[in-house]
UniProtKB/TrEMBL annotation:
UniProt domain Fumarate lyase N-terminal: residue ranges: 82-308
Keywords assigned by UniProt, alphabetized: Lyase, Purine biosynthesis
Protein name: Adenylosuccinate lyase
Transmembrane segment boundaries: none
UniProt xrefs under PANTHER family: ADENYLOSUCCINATE LYASE (PTHR43411:SF1)
Function, in words: Catalyzes two reactions in de novo purine nucleotide biosynthesis. Catalyzes the breakdown of 5-aminoimidazole- (N-succinylocarboxamide) ribotide (SAICAR or 2-[5-amino-1-(5-phospho-beta-D-ribosyl)imidazole-4-carboxamido]succinate) to 5-aminoimidazole-4-carboxamide ribotide (AICAR or 5-amino-1-(5-phospho-beta-D-ribosyl)imidazole-4-carboxamide) and fumarate, and of adenylosuccinate (ADS or N(6)-(1,2-dicarboxyethyl)-AMP) to adenosine monophosphate (AMP) and fumarate.
Record-linked SUPFAM superfamilies: L-aspartase-like (SSF48557)
Pathway: Purine metabolism; AMP biosynthesis via de novo pathway; AMP from IMP: step 2/2; Purine metabolism; IMP biosynthesis via de novo pathway; 5-amino-1-(5-phospho-D-ribosyl)imidazole-4-carboxamide from 5-amino-1-(5-phospho-D-ribosyl)imidazole-4-carboxylate: step 2/2
GO function term, MF aspect, one: lyase activity
Lineage: Bacteria, Bacillati, Actinomycetota, Actinomycetes, Micrococcales
Matches recorded under Gene3D superfamilies: Fumarase/aspartase (C-terminal domain), Fumarase/aspartase (Central domain), Fumarase/aspartase (N-terminal domain)
Length: 460
């Protein structure tokens, strides 16, 4: 058997590439190396701006040419780094050599020795990972999550008055509205999204074991912790002053746990919408040219929600692994985080793919209000809660002598269907006040939804 031409091993880089391509700008190996070049260049500029070691601040033109190393980072740099890393067997060292090489080209050889000055690889990496993850989350992942929340909010408002039979434990229960049920998901996701938006992206820049030892040996008079903080915060990141050789990754643990939490809520949404489709509450809008089954032409399968469900499970497993692995590093440093962090993009990729499926799926369904109303009309027994509660209020007010209203309604309704006429006859015979009786007789399953419609207004 002949070998196939080179193929992507991961479906994220093959079948689903177009859905997740935005993440590759940040969370790919090339995206990481571009950020590493950025950190190296900006550290050079920070050191020369302070005229350390008898250097002079670079001109604006020189700074612009230096920054072009990462702003215009492309295939030539990717290829150069691949060739050099094959020799160095060290990714960050290859980046250092790239910057040094370009300094020679730019006529800035005089400051070459300040490249990677007093920095350990983890100084560069912690800042680079913080930059790439922050940018991927803010520019790509969060907007897609926000789009799903916006779709849910819009649907919640549109269906706020669409009464539906609730199903607790899968059994007929007190009615709600579809809008309120969708609003629950929007509310839950909004809360977690706000937590993610408020999260920190921490980096260190304190040397081999987090002590600034080499820095002080080179120049004892400089306040290196303050300079490092100013440098990291200047990159738009948060500074971690107390570390080992590595930044402790706790911010990543928090982020991945929250992303996993959001994924759990989204998974709940996917399975609920799937179920609503299966019982006919939602109909699926046919997509021209699409095929649901290779043998059953009538079928429209809820594949958007099934794909979302599966990808959320994969993403959740990866996020959990990232969080549990990155929280630990033996003593001052081990290398378990290196391979682990290279899978950040895979976790967010499957999560983004799920979000894309959910966003598209929500646009491909239509509420079947006639089915909702028919289901309600077939389950008048759900008014038993209202009746027994009203009877209890009447007893408390001294307008009824009924001894056990719950048992009374349980005998009438438990495990059996009760129609409108039978329920009305039952209410007419109750020992309660006329006003209470009129309220109960006016109720239908479709009008017994409490404040469901108004609760949608809690979405902001």
């Amino acid at each position: 058997m002949t070998s196939l031409p080179p193929q992507p091993l991961s479906p994220l880089d093959g079948r689903y590439r177009t859905a997740v391509t935005g993440l590759a700008d940040y969370l790919s190996e090339a995206g990481l190396n571009r950020a590493r070049v950025e950190v190296e260049v900006e550290w050079l500029i920070a050191l020369t701006d302070r005229s350390l070691f008898e250097t002079s601040p670079l001109t604006d033109d020189d700074k612009a040419r230096l920054r072009a190393l990462y702003l215009e980072f492309g295939q030539p740099e990717i290829d150069w780094l691949a060739e050099r890393e094959a020799i160095t067997r060290h990714d960050v060292k290859a980046v250092e050599y790239l910057v040094r090489d370009r300094l020679d080209t730019l006529g800035l050889t005089a400051i070459a020795e300040l490249t990677h000055f007093a920095a350990t690889s983890e100084d560069i990496n912690s800042a680079s990972y913080a930059l790439t993850v922050k940018r991927a989350v803010v520019a790509v992942w969060l907007p897609k999550l926000r789009a799903v929340i916006a779709s849910l909010r819009s649907a919640a408002i549109a269906h706020r008055d669409a009464a539906m039979l609730s199903r607790t434990h899968g059994q007929p229960a007190t009615p709600s509205t579809m809008g309120k049920e969708l609003a629950v998901f929007a509310w839950r996701l909004e809360r977690v999204a706000a937590q993610i938006e408020g999260g920190e992206y921490l980096a260190k820049f304190s040397g081999a074991t987090g002590t600034w030892s080499a820095h002080l040996a080179a120049e004892p008079s400089v306040d290196w912790p303050s300079l490092s903080r100013e440098f990291i915060e200047g990159l738009g990141l948060d500074f971690n002053v107390l570390t080992t050789q590595i930044e402790s990754h706790d911010w990543q643990v928090e982020l991945y746990d929250r992303a996993r939490h959001a994924g759990g809520i989204l998974h709940n949404l996917a399975t609920d919408i799937w179920t609503y489709i299966s019982i006919g509450y939602f109909t699926q809008i046919p997509v021209a040219g699409a095929t649901g089954s290779s043998t059953m032409p009538h079928k429209i399968n809820p594949i958007r929600f099934e794909n979302a469900e599966a990808n959320l499970e994969i993403a959740g497993g990866l996020f959990a692994t990232l969080a549990s692995t990155l929280v630990t590093s033996r003593m001052q440093r081990d290398l378990t985080d290196s391979t682990t962090q290279r899978n950040i993009g895979v976790a967010f990729g499957h999560s983004l793919l799920a979000l894309d499926n959910l966003e598209r799926g929500l646009k491909e369904i239509s509420l079947a209000e006639d089915v909702l109303l028919a289901d309600l009309d077939a389950n008048w027994e759900v008014l038993a809660e209202a009746i027994q509660t009203v009877v209890r209020a009447e007893i408390a007010a001294g307008r009824s002598s009924i001894s056990d209203p719950y048992a009374l309604l349980k005998d009438l309704t438990r495990g059996r269907r009760v129609g409108a006429a039978e329920l009305a006859e039952f209410v007419q015979g109750l020992d309660i006040g006329d006003a209470a009786k009129e309220r109960l007789l006016a109720l239908t399953p479709a009008t017994y939804a409490g404040l469901a419609s108004r609760l949608v207004d809690e979405l902001h």
